[in-house]
Every structure is written in structure tokens, then in C-alpha cells.
Amino acid sequence: MERPNWAPGELDLTVPSTARVYDFYLGGSHNFAVDRAQARQAIEQWPLLPAALRANRAFLRRAVRFCVDQGIRQFLDIGSGIPTVGNVHEIAQAADPECRIVYVDVDPIAVAHSRAMLAGNERTAVIQADLRKPGDVLESPELTGLLDLSQPTAVLFVAVLHFVPDADDPAGLVRRYLDAVPPGSYLVLSHGSSEGAPRQAAEHEDLYQRTGTQIWMRSHERVLTYFGDCELLPPGLVQMTQWRPEPEDEFFGPPEQLSGFTGVGYKA
Q1: Can you give the pTM of this predicted structure?
Q2: Which residues contact 162 (CB under 8 A, 6 or more apart)?
């Protein structure tokens, strides 16, 4: 396989990447044959999967616009993947070019893509770090040089916490990041769940495990705990298409079969 000039030399192009698989589901071009093979296998098991991920991206769009409307001009996107079609900087800066966005991902290929795509955008930065080490993220010069965390900030955990095992305490990790931002900040969160399509979700978990990346689908009750002391804004923690839908949203399928929950919390 020919290695693109942006790909780090140590990157193994024979191993699928979660970020690149997600890019494929969204119709992006930043993926390789190994990623497409895993994605197609998953789609065979769960035909609604691409629709679910597009629904998640539509939620991201609505939530970011909402935050901008509330006066937020800083975004910290944890586990951002590849900032392909319709990502945070595009949405936020279209509403206000002054918005500043820091993307964080542990995947070197997602980071390489991100830096190449965002070159020249001085109001964005990319950090390669493990979200399970909040200190590394919050103290990184890329973040401190761009964001002022004494000011209200939107902290995003969109479709990432289901890759964090229980042993690493996802709720505690969210709390660590929220502790670093002041009142007036927002938490934007989405999470995969087995509710609605338990068989397909179980097969999806098994596929990810067999390809080297584990995924943990969690219940509505469990995901709700991640909001901690934040005020969960209406309509609450709901299926992806049910969080403040807009007339222009496409129809993604029955909400309960998309197997994911979304919500936005306010830090008072």
C-alpha cells in the first residue's frame, strides 16, 4: 500500500483505525482499505450503523450551534478523531470566526490528518494525547496557548467515552475536565448504547474487540451519571435524533434503533 506523504512513518497501514473507520462512515476520504473492510463488515451486521453515525454528527452540529448561541467561543473536543465533514471548527467558526477550538486525539493518524487539514487556521490546535490523562491535555502548550480556561468553554465528549473501559472511570474523567472550566461552561456528550438494538450492538462490540479496539455500549442510566453536577438541559439525555431536531435534518431511521444517547449539560 502506498503511504500518503502526511502519514507518520511508524504508522501500520494494515491495522484499522477507529478514527479512519468513522471517517468512512461519514463519507470522508481519509481512510484506507483496512478501515473500509472493517466498516463494511460492521455494516453487514448493523445496516443502520452509518445512519447512526451521521445522526451523531448532526447532533454535534446542533449542539455546537447552541453553544455559540449561548455565547461560548471556546471548544475543547476530546477524542475528536479526524475533523472531516461538519466538524466543530467548521460549525463554530461559520457562526463566529473568533471561535477557538482545540482537538484532542490519541490516534497519531487522526492527529496527522488534523494538523494537515487545519494548517493556516490560527484559531485551532491539535493535541496528541490520551484523554485518560487529563493533566497532559489541560497543561499542554497547544491548549494553554489558545484557550483561556478561566472563561466559559464547551467540553465535548462526542462518540468517544464508549471506548473507555469501566476501570478507567469515564464519569471521573469527565469530572476532571469539567473541574478545569468555570461556571457558564457546557458539556456536550454522546455515547453508544445497546438499548434499542441489543443484538447488533453486541455484534458491534465483538467486531471491535476482534480488530483490536474494544467498545463498551452502556445504558441510559449509566450515561446519565457522566453529567455529574451539571444541569442537564431540555430535552435531557435522549436518542440522537431527539436532541433539538431541526427541519433540515435528514431521516436517519427509527430513533430507538440508532442506539446512542446525546445530551448537553450546563455547569452552574
Answers
A1: 0.87
A2: 191, 192, 215, 216, 217, 218
The cell for 222 is 449509566
In a domain, 238, yes or no: no
Domain encompassing residue 194: 18-224+253-266
Helix (H) or strand (E) holding 33: helix 33-45
User: Domain for residue 3, yes or no?
Assistant: no
**C-alpha closest to that of 109 among 1, 38, 32:** 32
Q: How many domains does the chain have?
A: 1
DSSP string, 186-220: EEEEEEE-STT-HHHHHHHHHHHHHTT-------H
Low-confidence residues of the chain: pLDDT under 70? 1-11, 196-213, 251, 254-258
Q: Which one-letter DSSP state was computed for residue 29?
A: S
CATH number at residue 105: 3.40.50.150
The amino acid occupying position 5 is N
pLDDT at residue number 107: 84
**Contact predicate 229/263, CB 8 Å:** no
Sign of the Cα pseudo-torsion (113, 116, 120, 126, in order):
positive
